[in-house]
Write a structure and sequence with these properties.
Length: 384
């Protein structure tokens, strides 16, 4: 039972964006509380690939991803969860995909993106050779254990003096006050980091930004490969997914060809990618369906597409699926972040695409500085 009701910072939401705010506030020596309606971390922060795809971002997202990289590595050591500097491979299975990768490598340079020819990519990855034209390696990307990272960070923060108010719902806000189902908590600085549930607390801002819930087909599987998959693996579909590839001239060709060849996959908004796990399994995903409220029903079409493409990618006949789930995260059409101050001192911080883990550490560092040092940073208008 917590008796303290006054803090320097109160954070509503225990997902990775909220935990990142708690981490940076704690590093500043501030008193911090985290409020969550659940009794554990159960949302998007444990339903993901555990892949910090740093290099494929652009703009603000790229800045946040780069800034957060060292914090992820530091937290892995402090909190005791598995992480590694794996990098990411992307395989090209058509000349237009290889041209996108070549254009990207020319823009980013070899420290961030290394173009590989056909023999090089086939020498690194246990994939079928049919149609492969080359690939790319992005050495700065990271992997963490998606099931353990966020819970381990929360446990470490709690052991370090951050108060966690579990099974406590935030109901409303006033300047300096979070009204909750267990009484008021007071703080000059409040962050609301509840991802898609922001439409429950501040619906006008969610509606203004076009915020929706994006639900995914995802699975964990075991596949027999001649050698283990060494890193996360992107495909041609990834080139249509990440902002770092947008605007490259050859992307138009890739989008047109994939849409014409695989209209059923386009309807699923497929992103074919793979991330190997420490236990030898591979996380496989995903699809994207956007709705205001997520339907509880999930068709087999997405899973069938993922299994079919996994067999083709690795040249195998059998995929042993051990888990399936419907991931959900916040999505908006115009921006990757919803950052508003609806009430003085109350800061909404929501990642509105599937890069919450990738950007969380740098985003939190920036938003905390903006809130605590308003004269030294660009302010966000109360009616932004």
């Amino acid at each position: 039972m917590h008796t303290q009701r006054n803090y320097d910072v109160v954070i509503v939401g225990s997902g990775i964006v909220g935990l990142a705010h708690a981490y940076h506030a704690h590093r500043r020596g501030l008193t911090v509380a985290v409020v969550d309606h659940a009794d554990a971390i159960v949302g998007a922060s444990v339903q993901n690939f555990g892949h910090a795809c740093i290099t494929a971002q652009s703009g603000e997202a790229l800045e946040y991803a780069r800034a957060g990289r060292t914090h992820w590595l530091d937290l892995a050591t402090s909190s005791g969860f598995w992480a590694r500097e794996s990098g990411t491979h992307c395989v090209a299975r058509h000349d237009d995909e290889l041209e996108v990768l070549a254009q990207f490598a020319a823009v980013r340079g070899p420290e961030e993106a290394q173009l590989l020819d056909r023999d090089q990519i086939l020498g690194r990855l246990p994939i079928a050779a049919d149609g492969v034209t080359g690939g790319l390696y992005m050495p700065l990307d990271l992997q963490v254990d998606p099931r353990r990272a966020a819970p381990a960070i929360a446990a470490w923060l709690e052991s370090s003096g951050v108060d966690f108010h579990w099974r406590t719902a935030a109901t409303s806000f006033d300047p300096g006050v979070v009204h909750t189902s267990r009484g008021d908590l007071h703080a000059d600085t409040i962050f609301v980091t509840v991802n898609y549930d922001i439409d429950r607390l501040f619906p006008e801002y969610a509606e203004r930004g076009g915020l929706l819930r994006c639900r995914l087909h995802m699975m964990r599987a075991r596949v027999e490969l001649p050698t283990p998959l060494p890193t996360p693996l992107f495909t041609g579909w990834s080139l249509l997914r990440y902002s770092g590839f947008e605007g490259l001239p050859a992307v138009v060709d890739v989008a047109g060809r994939l849409g014409a060849e695989f209209p059923e996959y386009l309807a699923l908004d497929l992103h074919q990618m793979y991330t190997p796990q420490p236990d030898g399994s591979i996380l496989i995903g995903d699809t994207h369906i956007r709705e205001i409220s997520s339907s509880p029903f999930q068709s087999e079409a997405g899973f069938d597409a993922l299994i079919t493409e996994t067999k083709a990618m690795f040249g195998i006949d059998r995929v042993e699926v051990t888990e399936r789930w419907q991931g959900v995260y916040s999505s908006a059409p115009e921006s990757e972040f919803l950052l508003v101050e609806p009430i003085p001192g109350v800061h909404v911080v929501t990642v509105t695409t599937g890069i919450g883990m990738t950007t969380s550490m740098g985003l939190a560092q920036s938003s905390l500085a903006r809130a605590l040092e308003p004269l030294a940073t660009t302010p966000i208008g109360i009616d932004a």
